[in-house]
Amino acid sequence: MRYYGEQWLAIFTPLTMNHAILLYEDNLELSESIQSMLRLNETMHLVGAHGNPLDVNEHLQTLKPDLLIMDIDMPGMNGIEAVKRVRAVDKDIPILMLTVFDDNQHVFEAICAGASGYLLKKHIGTKLFAAIEEVRQGGAPMSPSIARMVLASMQQKPFQEDRYKLTPKEKEVLTSLSRGNSYKLIASENEISIDTVRSHIRKIYEKLNVHSQTEAISKALKEKLV
User: Fold this and answer.
1) pLDDT at 157
2) What is the model's pLDDT at position 2?
3) For residue 33, with 0-12 CB atoms within 10 Å meaning exposed, 13-18 middle and 19 or more buried, which class applies?
4) CA 222 distance to own-chain centroid
5) Measured between alpha carbons, how far is 42 from 40 in angstroms, rounded to an integer?
6) What domains sit in the chain, N to C, each tagged with a CATH number?
7) SS3 65
8) What is the tally of helices (H) and strands (E) in the chain?
9) What is the dihedral of CA 87, 90, 94, 98, to 10 degrees?
10) pLDDT at 15
11) pLDDT value at position 86?
């Protein structure tokens, strides 16, 4: 591991694995723990680990990750600003946020910036791999406390006329997406097939003029559609 001022860079020998992951975490002990977990998982390949995301767009070009794991609170540039920078050049790459915060301000800033999912640091040991797989499959994992805060906030918002002409079923699907539910869970809740869920989501994207689940959720929350 090499140390560069306020950040360190872990360099790994490329392996033939499924998921190329790039990690941003300024806590050295936690970063090393996550790195060890990822190296032990044969389906994942850690391409690098950094203590801050100042060069995140350069890393995207040179390291070609499939997924980012991003701490919210880091020196130099926080994770929320880093997500904004990533989304300016790549709207599709999954970004899993790591957070110790238990308040909706940081959570909503990250959602609006374009993060794909969230995991409280205290759950990393038991839920990291499941969260990675979920965002890779298009889901939006959230820790239970964060999901409850998102839902409570949505319920407190006043009704606003939906100028996008979403159907009742499309609104149900969009609301379920905003809660962080997977396609499989949405299908089960609504007693429809996963293909039907995908069809509803495509129509939602068209009506909202967005191109990803993150954009759809961000727009729905900002414009009080759910």
Assistant:
1) 58
2) 42
3) middle
4) 17
5) 6
6) 2-149 (3.40.50.2300), 158-222 (1.10.10.10)
7) coil
8) 10, 7
9) -40
10) 38
11) 95
Q: How far apart are CA 106 and CA 18, in angstroms?
A: 31
Q: How far is the C-alpha of 194 from the C-alpha of 137, rounded, in Å?
A: 12
Q: Check residue 181 and give its pLDDT.
A: 86
Please tell me the pTM assigned to this model: 0.64
- Tell me which residues of the chain have a pLDDT lower than 70: 1-17, 102-104, 150-151, 153-162
Helix residue ranges, H only, the chain: 28-40, 56-63, 79-87, 104-113, 124-136, 144-156, 168-178, 183-190, 194-208, 213-222
Q: In the numeric block, which tokens belong to residue 219?
A: 């727009």
Residue linked to tokens 């995207």: 60
Residue 153: the pLDDT is: 67
Name the nearest CA neighbour of 123 among 149, 151, 147, 99. 99
Distance CA 146, CA 212 (A): 21
